[in-house]
Amino acid sequence: MRALGIVAVAVLALAGCGSDDETQAETSAERPPPRTVTVTVPGDAPETSPDDDEEEDGDPETADLRAPAGLPEDGVALTGDFAVRIVDRTPAAGNASGESPRGTHDWRLTTSCSGGACRLEVRRRLDSGGFKDVTLRPIADRPGQWYGEFRGTALCGRNGRAVDQSLTIRPLNPQDGEGGQVATRFEAYFRADLACFRGSTMTNKHLGVLASESG
């Protein structure tokens, strides 16, 4: 056990001197009370709970969640920098997104609304170092989900081909934020039709996590 301190008690009393009469005349009220001195051994300061000095800042996952003005009640906003990785590829040899299947990729998502219409801007950093921008719109019969079409490079084996593609984003675990629902995680699906797979549809599934959460 660690010693939290050493308590020394010193009792100061007047030394008896003089005549017996003088000693008897002294009353207890005139005697100074005992004095207690507490000494803390260096390095053994009392431990405190880590919660003692912490201030309550609210739930960290919901403290800074803000939805853009005009977001519909059934809409879900995604805004911020996300760390994204491929979690599934079909067929295994294909890559519809054109991104390396290993490691994480940087995506920046921005949700905005104007005149009753909303859109989700997606900027992806490609393996080449460049950027690819895609605009997604809400899916009418799938509340909270986003969809967009674009033309981009898909990898078929080791060869890259420019093909028509689509990107669908489904927010995960939306939370009530300021102005509407906001999500900090999502699933993304790339789809592309490639002749090298006999006209089959190639699909890649991605998982994105807000960078501040994954860090």
What features would you describe in this structure?
There is one protein chain. This protein is mainly beta and 215 residues long. It has two domains: 6-39, no CATH class; 76-214, Lipocalin, CATH 2.40.128. It is 5% helix and 47% strand. The chain has helices at residues 20-25, 211-214; strands at 6-10, 35-39, 76-77, 80-90, 94-95, 105-114, 117-125, 131-138, 146-156, 159-172, 175-177, 180-182, 185-193, 201-210. It has an eight-stranded antiparallel beta barrel with strand order 4-6-7-8-9-10-13-14. It has a three-stranded mixed sheet with strand order 3-12-11, with no helix packed on it. A two-stranded antiparallel ribbon has the order 1-2. The protein is globular and about 45 Å long. The chain starts with 5 loop residues before the first strand and ends with a helix. Residues 1-29 and 31-63 have low confidence and may be disordered.
Main attributes?
215 residues; Lipocalin; 2 domains; 8-stranded antiparallel beta barrel; 3-stranded mixed sheet; globular; disordered N terminus
